Automatic annotation (TrEMBL):
<protein>
    <submittedName>
        <fullName>Cytochrome bd-I ubiquinol oxidase subunit 1 apoprotein</fullName>
    </submittedName>
</protein>
<dbReference type="GO" id="GO:0020037">
    <property type="term" value="F:heme binding"/>
</dbReference>
<keyword id="KW-0812">Transmembrane</keyword>
<feature type="transmembrane region" description="Helical">
    <location>
        <begin position="12"/>
        <end position="36"/>
    </location>
</feature>
<dbReference type="GO" id="GO:0009055">
    <property type="term" value="F:electron transfer activity"/>
</dbReference>
<feature type="transmembrane region" description="Helical">
    <location>
        <begin position="57"/>
        <end position="78"/>
    </location>
</feature>
<dbReference type="InterPro" id="IPR002585">
    <property type="entry name" value="Cyt-d_ubiquinol_oxidase_su_1"/>
</dbReference>
<keyword id="KW-0408">Iron</keyword>
<keyword id="KW-1003">Cell membrane</keyword>
<feature type="transmembrane region" description="Helical">
    <location>
        <begin position="359"/>
        <end position="380"/>
    </location>
</feature>
<feature type="transmembrane region" description="Helical">
    <location>
        <begin position="128"/>
        <end position="148"/>
    </location>
</feature>
<keyword id="KW-0479">Metal-binding</keyword>
<keyword id="KW-1133">Transmembrane helix</keyword>
<dbReference type="GO" id="GO:0016682">
    <property type="term" value="F:oxidoreductase activity, acting on diphenols and related substances as donors, oxygen as acceptor"/>
</dbReference>
<dbReference type="Pfam" id="PF01654">
    <property type="entry name" value="Cyt_bd_oxida_I"/>
</dbReference>
<keyword id="KW-0813">Transport</keyword>
<keyword id="KW-0249">Electron transport</keyword>
Amino acid sequence: MLDFLDALMLARIQFAFTVSFHFFFPAFSIGLASYLMVLEGLWLKTGRQIYLDLFKYWLKIFAIAFAMGVVSGIVMSYQFGTNWSVFSDVAGPVIGPLMAYEVLTAFFLEAGFLGVMLFGMNKVGKKLHFAATCMVALGTFVSAFWILSVNSWMQTPTGYEIAANGQFLPGPSWWDIVFNPSFPYRLVHTVMAAYLTTAFAVGGVGAWHLLKDSTNLHARKMFSMAMWMAAIVTPLQIYAGDMHGLNTLEHQPQKVMAMEGHFESHPDGAPLILFGIPDSEAKTVRYAIQIPKLSSLILKHDLDAPMAGLDTIPDDEEPPVGVVFWSFRVMVGIGFAMLGIGAWSLLARWRRKLYDWPWLHRAALVMAPSGFVAVLAGWITTEVGRQPYVIYGLLRTADAASPLDAPAVAASLLAFILVYFAVFGVGVWYILRLMGKVPHVGETGVKRGDTGPIRTAGITPGPTQNPGHDDPLPADKEDV
């Protein structure tokens, strides 16, 4: 039963495991950084304490999520050298500089201002602190920009030349590589997904506290802001997803064939298969529930438009249909569920029951992790749908792996599983514990240690007392 677990499959499972674990945290921190920027901006503009309290409440959660995202990302990147050394050698001249740009711009930008954002509210002026928060939010976006540019180039490679030794080299213009055909669509779709992931997480936390006390002003405010985001951004996300799908149909048609479950070509209009069980061996979707010609209408805006199927693709170039078929439906289903919650919240506002409608709060609480599930399902659709290629149409996944034995890859995979669930499991548990605490007036934000941050000099410990006094620092100076 485990004969298929050769070194290649184990390397793929290992990368899928680490990248899926990693993707949860950037998907949350990208949106949360922007949410913190909005909260601090509203506090500076209005002077209302509630925005400052919510800023400090979510700042603690952001700090942990950001740290776990950085750590999991660094670990993941090492696999390019261990399990995928052939890919690194062949595509390094193109992929390497793009990933270096991400470090030199986004990572340095975030790292340079993160300390000020976390610990500097009582150390620097309000405007300077807000500028630091804006820079961190910008850094998370720039990081997504470069990473998605890399991934999009692997999906729709352009602007390259192939050297005599088989390496991919950049062509005359780097812009053709960075702004490859799928990149703009993927960037918009992914960033909005991150915003919705954060919105529903924040909304779920607000709903949890409203169910316990509907008069809590802080819970009301965060829930209201989250529902505005759900109501406004979800329709835009569905439209962006449709545009991304049309782009994928143009450049990666077999991925769309797998998403739609079209094993056969349809010369007179293709049906939209809602549900079914794909059978790749029999080349059919069993027990299919479908709407005639609707797929042609959605993808080509014509009921009778012909649609090619996987029968036009060689068998060794077909992606795993079952995985792509179902992950796509999970993503789309959650998207429409988000749309329903957004519409429900608008109805509740109109009826002045946004804070007094327990069933809406229960639904929002159930939907709290939905963004994480949706981005993971979307990521699976994108990456599995690209198979059997790691650089679409040019480099097969089987030809990109390192020459390793299966036991070596299996040992490192087992180590990753044990360490990730132990370390990041504790981190997630602590985040949930922070979310379970009721936001209140006078939130303290991120606390520093009694001796302050560690000094590299080693001989300049932070003062724990005011110079010349025996009393400790006041409480408002100990907590930021």
